[in-house]
Amino acid sequence: MTQYAINGGTPLHGTINISGAKNAALAILPATLLVDGVCRIENIPKVTDVTLMLEILRDVGASIRLTDDNAVLIDTSGVSAGSVAPYEQARRMRASYYLIGAFLARFAGAQVAMPGGCNLGVRPIDQHMKGFEALGADVQVKAGSIHARAREQCLKGANIYLDVQSVGATINIILAAAMADGLTVIENAAREPHVVDLANFLNSAGADIKGAGTDMIKIRGKKSLKGGSYAIIPDQIEAGTYMAAVTAAGGEVTLNNVIPKHLECITAKLEELGANVEEYDDSITVRREGKLRKANIKTLPYPGFPTDMQPQISACLSSAEGISMITESVADNRYRYVDELKRMGARIQVDGKVAVIEGIRHLTGAPVQACDLRAGAALIVAALGAQGTTEIGGVYHIERGYENIVSKLQGVGANIRAEEVSDSEHLASGKTG
Ligand code: EPU
C-alpha cells in the first residue's frame, strides 16, 4: 500500500495550479444524462472519485473519451431506461445519489445503491427523497438500493422547502426538476459554488434555472437539453488546503486558476491566524512569515467557513499561540482526525460539536492514518509544519479528492514522497484502520 512520507519544517515557495472542483464535477458528470448530443466537459480533476463516476456512467452505457487536456467527451445517448448503476461502485461514493435525480429526469425512474462516501457521522438523504416525492416520484429503499419512479409519465414541478440547507439535496432536486413539467421552486437551497456551477452547466445546455447562489432557486422544466462545451470551476477546497499548507509551513505560494471570491471565507480566517493573502483576477498569493495566532471558527454553509476546511485549519491552529475554539455545525462527526493529530503532539479536546485547541510550539512527525479525505489533507498540512518525519497511511482517501498532491507540493519545495510499504510494515508502525 502507498503512504506519504513528509519531512516538515520547510517553508513553501512557488506556484500551484488548482484543478477543477471535484464536487462540481461529481454533479455535472451525471447531469450529462439529461443532455442530447455530446458534452465536452473541461477542467475535469483527475481524482479517483471522478474516475469512479466516469466508470459508473460508462457501465450504464455512456460513451466516454478523456482527452489529454483534462477534458472529457460524453455522449449518454446509449444509456437505456432500465440501466442500473452498478451496486458495488455506486455504494462506494456519496455523489452516486446524483444518478437518481438524473435518471428520474431522463427516464422517470431510477435504481441506485444507497450512497457511501466519507464517514462524517449520520448522513441522511431524507431531503433528497422529500424533493423527489414532491416532484411526483415514489421512492423506496429495497435491498440496499434506492428505487424511484414517477407516479405519472413525467415529474411535475413543485414547491420544495428544504429543512436543512443540503448541497446534495439541492443539486439532486435541480437535476430532477430540470426536465419536469412546470415550475419548481427550492426554498432554503444550498448556495455553494458547485450548486451554481451545475445550474450554469444545465443553463448552457438550454435549461431554465434562476437564482442558483441564493437560497431560492426557480427551475422551469424544459423538454430537451442540447450538448456543448463547459469548463468546471476551480476547486475551492483544494485551493483552501494549499492555503492552509502555506499557513502551517510558512513561505509564499501563488495559486493559479482560482476564483478569489469563493475563497474569501477561508482567506478571512487564515489572515486572523497571521497569513497574508493577496487577490488577483484568477490567482492569489498566500504568505506567512510571523507566528501563528489563535482563532475561533464555526463551520457554516456557504458563504460561511466550509466544513471541508475544518480539519485543515485545526491542523494550523494546533501550533498557533493561544487557545482556539472550533464549532462544527454542518457535519455530524468530523473530528475523527483529532486522535491522529494528537500522535503529533496536538492538544485538542473534543466535546460534541466543539473542539478546543491549545496551541503548542510545534507538532512533531509521527506515523498517522488518514480516516477520510479532509482528515488526510489535515495530516498533510500538519506534517508540512511539523518537525521531523510524518508517515501518512490510508492515502487512498486523499487521492479521492486531490489531483497530484504529491507533485504539486514537491513543486513548491515540500519534502514529500509517496512510497510503497507492505501491509506488515504498516502493521508494525501501528497504523491500521
Ligand atoms: N442532511 C440531512 N438530510 C439530507 C441531506 C443532508 O439532514 O437529506 C444534513 C447532513 O447530515 C449534514 C448537512 O445536512 O449535516 C449538510 O449535508 P449536505 O447534504 O450539504 O452534504 P452532502 O451533499 O452530503 C456535500 C459534499 C461534502 C461536503 C458537504 C457540505 C459532495 C459530493 N459532497 O456533501 O464534501 O462536506 O456537501 O458542504 O458534494 C468532501 O468533499 O470532502 C465532502 C465530504
Write the layout of secondary structure elements.
Blueprint: E1 2-7, E2 12-17, H1 22-31, E3 35-36, E4 38-42, H2 48-59, E5 63-66, E6 72-75, H3 87-90, H4 98-107, E7 109-113, H5 126-134, E8 137-142, E9 145-150, E10 159-161, H6 167-177, E11 183-187, H7 193-204, E12 208-210, E13 216-220, E14 225-226, E15 229-231, H8 236-249, E16 251-256, H9 260-273, E17 276-279, E18 283-288, E19 296-298, H10 310-317, E20 323-327, H11 338-343, E21 347-351, E22 354-358, E23 367-369, H12 373-385, E24 389-393, H13 395-399, H14 405-410, E25 415-420, H15 423-428
Parallel strand pairs: 2-16, 3-14, 4-15, 10-11, 19-20, 23-24
Antiparallel strand pairs: 1-24, 1-25, 4-6, 5-6, 7-9, 8-9, 11-13, 12-13, 16-18, 17-18, 20-22, 21-22
Helix pairs in contact: 1-2, 1-7, 4-6, 5-6, 8-9, 8-10, 8-12, 10-12
Bound molecules: uridine-diphosphate-2(N-acetylglucosaminyl) butyric acid.
